Amino acid sequence: MSATWYECKVKYRKMSDTGAQKVTTEPYLVDAISYTEAETRINEEMKAYISDEFKITNIKVANFAEIHPFENTDRWFKSKVSLIAFDEESGKERKTNMYLLVQANDVKEAYDNTVAVMKDTMGEYTIPAITESPIMDVFPYFSGEEGELDRIHRFNEIKDSVPEVEETEEAKEILEDEALALVSADVDLDEEE
Q1: Hey, is 19 helix, strand or coil?
Q2: Residue 187: its pLDDT value, please?
Q3: What is the value of pTM for the model shown?
């Protein structure tokens, strides 16, 4: 059975950068069987994050075929993938669109991650559009069985991983200089003894 994802909009008071409280509405994604379960699950999930009152303002079925978290990423992107099929009777190309929610740090990485997800696809496809999604977080459903617990821990590890910061050449040179200074200071101490 495939997952049905529900987009739930949650309205609550959030502390702004200036320290003032601001009412904000943010979308979240929940894997559920029905609207009722989606509402129950989003209420449970949000209680862990929001101590004040919050309100579920909207719940709708999300149009995502698949959700793919990736390590060391912090944003979600909506990738439009067009599957290409050749109709032999009419002799025309037919395209069927599907949407993937892919985690990445930028659009280029979202494209690369979408290609990685689609690598085992037998047919032809194109990726005509990738846009940043307003989705703040994704809450998949896990039954609690032993195998499922491993999956939930792995999913959350990937989803919550922190982006790695690439070192610049200047930063590498500074680190090398500091390492050389420490080594030479250590050699000086050895000679004194």
Answers
A1: coil
A2: 41
A3: 0.71
